[in-house]
Specification:
Pfam families: rve_3. By secondary structure, the protein is mainly α. It has a domain at 23-87. It contains four helices and no strands.
Amino acid sequence: ILARWADEHDVRLSVGRTGSCHGNAVAESFFGTLKNEMYSLRTWATREDARNGVIDYIERRYSRNRPHSTIGYQVPAKAMDAFFERTKPAAESAVDRHGCEGKMAA
């Protein structure tokens, strides 16, 4: 199903060999960091508690405060904002990327 969807939407799937971390090094690094800095440091009462803990960690620490080597030691949230600033069209639409209404560029 995924392969068919990818083909229909001109998306190239990229996977490495089973058991090889080199094909997906960024994801492997992220999950290692998540386990070492957050997940393994406590016992979770429920799956929902663990899920909420992971979301909180990503939103508060990982994406907003922690520099990442794969993006030139920038903080992901700031790198994303800079990307959208560099790539926005000259005449912005009335709705920005956060879904907020704004004024069109002059």
